[in-house]
Write a structure and sequence with these properties.
Elements lengths: L21 H51 L44 E7 L4 E7 L12 E3 L10 E6 L20 E5 L4 E13 L26 E9 L6 E9 L1
Parallel strand pairs: 2-3, 4-7
Antiparallel strand pairs: 1-2, 1-5, 3-4, 5-6, 6-8, 7-8
């Protein structure tokens, strides 16, 4: 009788360890750190570069739209002052305030709609040319690279205080270098009717965000009363955040109409 030999093929089952080795843990952590760094870098690039590119393009186009409108139509009367609730001093980091304004006239058939801005600010010393729009809403005004006209302040060239706000960093940063302005520097405000010229008179380097005295008809700081005025006149106020990349304080520049 022939013996039958049964051969069994050994089966080897390999299992992976459930627990990661220290090297693998370090590798995963390194990947996470690199990913977070890339995301953070992209956010910084978007905030510091891309928002500026977008806002400057919008603001520049708005200036050109205004100039074309003014060149093609006669003056329509003096620029009105803006009414509405008082706003916090510049840039409105927490709340957004809209100006109460009358709606713009409808465009004629075949024409583009009128621009939302109504004036242009030019400051030769810092090379600034930017459109001015009613209100200081971040979304619809300031973040578009515009300079915002505070509600309830005087219109351009009027007796009182023509108060403006603008970003110092990001979103076009039109007021990035207003800290460089000095007494005697010229600021020009152009409207459909005419151009108004103001001369810088005082600079308040730092005040509190709620120092609303700086945008009153006769501007005077409530925090530092030695800064400001006591007599009525035709004033221009520029407001922005300070120090740079912070909204902790406010920087104020006052000018008088020539």
């Amino acid at each position: 009788m022939r013996d039958r030999v049964r051969e069994r093929v050994p089966v080897v089952v390999q299992t992976r360890g459930v627990r990661s080795t220290p090297a693998r843990v370090l590798w995963v952590c390194a990947e996470a750190v690199v990913t977070c760094g890339v995301v953070l870098m992209l956010l910084v690039v978007h905030q510091l570069w891309w928002t500026n590119q977008q806002a400057r393009a919008q603001a520049g186009e708005q200036v050109r739209v205004l100039e074309r409108e003014w060149a093609g139509s006669p003056p329509a009367g003096p620029s009105p002052s803006v009414s509405g609730p008082p706003a916090v001093v510049p840039d409105v980091p927490a709340e957004e305030t809209e100006a109460a304004t009358t709606p713009p006239p409808a465009a004629r058939p075949g024409e583009s709609p009128p621009s939302s801005a109504y004036a242009i600010i030019r400051i030769p010393r810092i090379g600034l040319t930017a459109p001015i729009a009613r209100g200081v809403s971040k979304r619809s005004v300031l973040d578009r690279g515009y300079v915002g006209h505070y509600p309830d302040t005087a219109g351009p060239g009027r007796t009182g205080n023509f108060a403006l706000a603008g970003h110092r960093n990001t979103h076009g940063e039109p007021f990035r270098y207003i800290n460089r302005l000095r007494k005697g520097d010229v600021i020009r405000i152009q409207t459909r009717e005419r151009e108004y010229e103001y001369v810088v008179d005082q600079v308040l380097a730092q005040t509190a965000p709620r120092d609303t005295g700086v945008i009153q008809p006769v501007p005077r700081s409530l925090v530092k009363p030695s800064y400001g005025y006591s007599d009525p006149g035709s004033y221009l106020t520029l407001t922005t955040c300070t120090p740079e990349f912070s909204s902790r304080y406010r920087l104020i520049v006052w000018a008088k109409r020539v």
